Amino acid sequence: MFLVTGATGGIGRRVVRLLREQETPVRAFVRLTSDYGQLEHRKAEIFIGDLRHEKDIQKACQGVQYIISAHGSDGDALALDYRANIELIDHAKAVGVQHFVFISVLGAERGYEDAPTFKAKRAVEQYLQVSGLNYTILRPAGLSSNLLPLAERFRETRTYLLIGDHKNRTSIVSTDDLARITVSSVTTPAAQNQILPVGGPEILQRQDIPRILGRIFNQEPIIINPPLFLVDGVRSAVGLLNSQAQKALGTFRTLLANEFFCTPDEISHLESIFNFKLEPLESFLRRYLAV
Ligand SMILES: NC(=O)c1ccc[n+]([C@@H]2O[C@H](COP(=O)([O-])OP(=O)(O)OC[C@H]3O[C@@H](n4cnc5c(N)ncnc54)[C@H](OP(=O)(O)O)[C@@H]3O)[C@@H](O)[C@H]2O)c1
Question: Is the pTM for the entire model greater than 0.70?
Fold first, then answer.
């Protein structure tokens, strides 16, 4: 039995689909408010709970051999990126889980002080590495599925909002490829007890994204490119009302201000151990946008 957290999210939903296509038993950890009908339809076992509650985590881990931690933080890095994962690891040990796959983030080791999610991910990575569990830590770059709503807006308005340096490099990974790597990690010997950066096959500049959308829709893009200090202004204003939201914006700012890409060697390594070719961004978008 696999336990998948974040089972209704961009990665988790695809992980559950892949596992169910192989007829593997899956317990999907969802909230009562989550949109989990599709998971039920795929005959995943639905576990309703909240990752903020350790009792729910403990219950969800009963009888499980594999755990895939793919939940998001909902703006609360301490409770969800950090504490929920530590508790998942502790209960995984208690029930003798055979393999734990943790979705971290590219750059987790860089020590960004102002980015709670990055700090939490690194602390969880370190905890997992010394836990005695078999593990795979995946550090993805940006996910291609995040771009689908932006692509739909582009289709209607030709506009693309690009905050900060348009030349920053990124290697956006197909969310389908990441899900495939996540599931295969459990059975791939070269992924055992490894930390693997996961990106797409090409290093793009952020300005390439509206250009790709322009090609797909055959439209000249209108790029709106406000400077990064606009985010700083918004953060200061938000901080007056809500300090947690201000901290979460620190992670967002870090993502905008820095480069997140994999080297060609890292990508070849990934393709060779998982034995498939990673999909370029344009191909992913064309598949989903049906153009
Ligand atoms: N998106 C990216 O570009 C990116 C890049 C690198 C790494 N990552 C990492 O990849 C992981 C998955 O990202 P994603 O984009 O696939 O996530 P996502 O689409 O934002 O989904 C987040 C998931 O977490 C669940 N969740 C949030 N709070 C919860 C709680 N209190 N209890 C139970 N479930 C809860 C959500 O449930 P609901 O459906 O109920 O909201 C949802 O299923 C995250 O750890 C993220 O840090 C993401």
Answer: yes
